Every structure is written in structure tokens, then in C-alpha cells.
């Protein structure tokens, strides 16, 4: 079946993307790895010994970066609806964390511990209808913020991908209610034409 013009453009852009090429050379599963690397270099949200929760983790590009940062004294709990190949130092829980059984599994894995950092690179399955996709993406980041509010320890950090558009300003206000400091990042590895940005919250108010 012939590819549409749009999908061919995306494929050409993807194949020629310098971060896609760099990821292959560096052994990362995804070009997204460079986004969390840059965010952490600027905001220092992940440190050795931290417990980090990675939501929407598949294929594992962020967990690959986070696991060495927290080291043997830290822990990474990753979750996604999609499967993810194992990573040393990462406990992966497959399923929808809004479902009680999956959520309970995550909590039992924490074993009563609170989390230092919640990160989310979740994206909805895009329909191509901008308004629908925007509402879907805002819904996902609202779920990520709810999870963060439930599991973070006071002073903890949060980083989530969000698409600018309807609901974005209201969401940013909600994040500011829960964190002492909030900044918005647009990493170099994020395509210039993309509406995605990353909201980083530090100093969870509990």
C-alpha cells in the first residue's frame, strides 16, 4: 500500500533526524532520551539514590537514562500500556495505571516508600483531529499529575510532556498549585514544529 504524502514526509524527517541517528550510535532506544538528559542537566531533578517513577515508559528511552543516574542505591518504577524490554535497575509494570489492579501493583512495588521524582513522556494515540488529540493529551498529563500528587514525597519533582493548545494554561496553573517552582522547557531534541513542551515542577508541596 502506498504511503501518504504526510507519512512519507514524517518518515523522511525521522530517518534524517540527527537525534535519531545519535540514538542509534549511543545505544538509546529512542531520540526522546536526549530530552530528559537536557532537562536534567538544566534542572537537576534526578540524583543518585532517588526513587523515580517513569509513566508512559515504552520503549524505555527515559528509563535508560534515569537508571544509571539513580544508581544502585536508587530505584526506577516504569509503567506503560505497551510492553517494554527489560532494563537493569528498572521494575516495569505493564498496564493502564488508572486501573485499580495496575495502580495497586505500582503501590505494592513501592512498598510504602514515597517517590522523589515522577516523569511522564506519555502521548495519546493520535487521531489526526487536532482538537480531539489535544483533549486526549491534556487528559493524560492530568492523570500523570494526579499520580504525582499521590506518590511524591514533599520536596519531590515532576516532569511531564504537554502539548500547547486548549487546556494548556489551565494545566500549568494546576501544576503551580502543587510545586514551589515551575519552569517550561523545550529541549533541543524536541522538533521545532512540535507543540510539545515539558513542564518541570520542583519542590512538591505535599
From TrEMBL:
Domain Ribosomal RNA methyltransferase FtsJ intervals: 28-204
InterPro entries: RNA_methyltr_RlmE, RNA_MeTrfase_FtsJ_dom, rRNA-MeTfrase_E, SAM-dependent_MTases_sf
Pfam families: FtsJ
Gene3D superfamilies from the UniProt entry: Vaccinia Virus protein VP39
Record's GO cellular component terms: cytoplasm
GO MF annotations in UniProt: rRNA (uridine-2'-O-)-methyltransferase activity
Signal peptide bounds: none
Protein's UniProt name: Ribosomal RNA large subunit methyltransferase E
Encoding gene, per UniProt annotation: rlmE
Amino acid at each position: 500500500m502506498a504511503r501518504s504524502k504526510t507519512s512519507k514526509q514524517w518518515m523522511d524527517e525521522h530517518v534524517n533526524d540527527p537525534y535519531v541517528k545519535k540514538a542509534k550510535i549511543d545505544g538509546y532506544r529512542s531520540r526522546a532520551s536526549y530530552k530528559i538528559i537536557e532537562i536534567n542537566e538544566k534542572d537537576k531533578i534526578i540524583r543518585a539514590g532517588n526513587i523515580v517513577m517513569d509513566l508512559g515508559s515504552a520503549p524505555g528511552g527515559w528509563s535508560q537514562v534515569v537508571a544509571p543516574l539513580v544508581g544502585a542505591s536508587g530505584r526506577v518504577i516504569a509503567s506503560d500500556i505497551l510492553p517494554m524490554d527489560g532494563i537493569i535497575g528498572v521494575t516495569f509494570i505493564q498496564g493502564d495505571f488508572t486501573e485499580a489492579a495496575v495502580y495497586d501493583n505500582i503501590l505494592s512495588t513501592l512498598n510504602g516508600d514515597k517517590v522523589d521524582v515522577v516523569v511522564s513522556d506519555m502521548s495519546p494515540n493520535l487521531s489526526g483531529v487536532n482538537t480531539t488529540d489535544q483533549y486526549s493529551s491534556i487528559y493524560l498529563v492530568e492523570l500523570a499529575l494526579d499520580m504525582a500528587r499521590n506518590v511524591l514525597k514533599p520536596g519531590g519533582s515532576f516532569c511531564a510532556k504537554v502539548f500547547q493548545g486548549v487546556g494548556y494554561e489551565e494545566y500549568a496553573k494546576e501544576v503551580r498549585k502543587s510545586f514551589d517552582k515551575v519552569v517550561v522547557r523545550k529541549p533541543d531534541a524536541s522538533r521545532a514544529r512540535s507543540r510539545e513542551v515539558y513542564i518541570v515542577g520542583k519542590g512538591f508541596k505535599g
